[in-house]
TrEMBL record:
Protein location: Membrane
Transmembrane parts of this sequence: 232-254, 266-286, 292-310, 331-352, 358-376, 383-400, 412-436, 578-597, 603-621, 633-651, 686-706
Ranges of compositional bias, category Pro residues: 13-25
Biased composition (Acidic residues): 195-209
Gene Ontology cellular component terms for the protein in this record: membrane
Keyword Membrane: yes
Polar residues bias spans: 52-63
Entry similarity comment: Belongs to the nucleobase:cation symporter-2 (NCS2) (TC 2.A.40) family.
Highest rank taxon of the organism: Eukaryota
This protein's name: Nucleobase-ascorbate transporter 11
Amino acid sequence: MDPSGSSSEGPGGKPPARPQKPGPWQPRIEPFFANKDHNPRELKSWARRTGFNPNHSGETASVISDRDAADEQTPAQGLDLERGIRRRGDGVPRKPEIEPVVVRGRTNRGVEISPMVPGPGAGPAARSEKEKRKVGVEPPAVGLKDERREAGEETPLRSKSDGPEGNGHGNGAAAISLAKADEDSRKEAGKDEREVEIDFFSDGQDPEDLSGYKPPSGFRAGVTENPGLVPLIFYGIQHYLSLAGSLVFIPLIMVPAMGGTDEETATVISTMLLVSGITTIMHSYFGSRLPLVQGSSFVYLAPALVIINSEEFRNLSENKFKHIMRELQGAILVGSVFQAVLGYSGLMSILLRLINPVVVAPTVAVVGLAFFSYGFPQAGSCVEISIPLILLVLIFTLYLRRISLFGNRIFLIYAVPLSVAIVWAYAFFLTAGGAYNYKGCSSNIPSSNILSDRCRRHAITMKRCRTDVSNAWRAAAWVRVPYPFQWGFPTFHFRTSLIMVIVSLVASVDSVGTYHATSLLVNLSPPTPGVVSRGIGLEGFASILAGLWGTGTGSTTITENIHTIDVTRVASRKALEFGASLLILFSFVGKIGALLASIPLALAASVLCFTWALIVALGLSTLQYTQTASSRNIIIVGFTLFISFSIPAYFQQYEPNSSLILPSYLVPYGAASNGPVHTSSEGFNFALNGLLSLNMVVALLVAFILDNTVPGSRQERGVYIWSDSNRLDTDSSSLEPYSLPAKVRRFFQWAKWVGL
């Protein structure tokens, strides 16, 4: 385009070269004009002349002008939020800051752009000052040169492109300094005779050698790092020990409610260890590839209790445990197939647009809050061991959290296993010392067969406090390998399957929040929608394995992973894989499951009080990505939390018609058979009454509708920003840790859920 506004083209469709003005002007480089029949060599040649690199360099003004115009119409403040989140870890991988471009030319408005380079006397100090202005981690060095061109070529303005990590997207605009330079001084500097070198980095590697990912400051091992054999063993064990409460305590609640024996409790625990180990390794290679442990989730515990307390199973006396377990297996299999299809079909990528922190926060928080009626009422049955345990956990995690031994904050990392070991030993001495011996009463006699009123009052205390009540250790075999259909072939019913399908959606929303929070914590760019879909699809496949083996719950990402990674400062996938391998080996040793099954119930309930409280805190912490002071968010979250307890309370007031008296903590889960919904379909009645009696389902439904219908800016809502591998301004090296292994990825290039 000439100054008069007319355009003309030279040979090959390129703009004709302008004649160079007389004087010592800098040579000009023409901008690259995209066309359909461009030659790849021409692209590379233009990139060499302009110093353009799609991963580390800015784009020319001609390339970014359309995007800038679009950004003016889109509120950018919502994207500033991602940059604020990035401050959580030191050394966040950002694209390198582009130094002032050394050019002299004339823009379309006639403003001269003069070079800002150190003079002949500038030494290392000047370069040091220049390096101090760089943002984030210092990447490897690249030296890029502007080649001298013939007369008439034009140098485009260089600008730093928007990306997922700044100025609305994470990077901000490049600094272009405007100054006047004296022609004589430029001649003295010899700028008209030598090439100008633009040094973006601090050493001399090529851009292709840029590793991209670096762990945050203070982390001992990043996602892709192998810390060595000895640290690998140590880190793998410590990660699973810190998650002990989430991995093994669900069977201690479920199996007794299902009428199972101590031996069956031990078998279910061993099965959970096996499935958790297998699915964690699978997720590390074929899922989201984030360092996340997979296992039985508390998301599935409440719906499992609804099915367990249905009228059909309430009065069973023979093989009650196996009947209920087969029903749970069938429901989990249907729900997990739905979740796998949701992920691998790409539908999850569409759903991601509607899932934001304002939806995730109350949904996850309610998962923990829903068990308030079980926590301390169960722990309070034996206050002499439950109170000391709760106090120890709080002291270790709060008051002693900064104490470090051998470089490890052992009290913070091992708060749960240390507290359990200390109080369990204390309970053993109480039992051996006769603290729970009552004359004429035996803990081995079922409560229903106790005739003495005095012994009946002490029966609960003996069962929940004594360490020698469980006979799991005596009955369990040393070696036992869990196998599919070990409880029998699953049974399928529409009413229970529908409940698990909806619950799989809740589990997916929980995992979405965990993926995003973990990626920021370990210093990665947020995963792409394809990676999230791939992770959700694999979680569905993992739940299929849980249904086949019979764990009683589905397998999903454990929310407490975020806390574990934060306190251990270890994010190595290799460490998780090693720990998962140990879980698989431990599952074959029946005595390990038996030992865990013999934990006194009051002690387990005390640990769960802390674990559920941690889930509540992790859920609410998701609001940090939003404007928490916004009245919109305050009303949505507050109303969601309240109504998610009030509506289930309405359904739970319909007490079950049964000759048996349910324990108080199971009464809320008996509403499915006797709720207020009455239609011509009994199966639909059961499913709808059961779903509306679940706090987390109501929370997800209410928060989802309100957040997506009430107007609010992207920053106010804290809209999740997912990476896009197709954008030119996306640093592909920051997404490399999400890539499938090369040999696997080669066979799935056609699939959208590959994600990269």
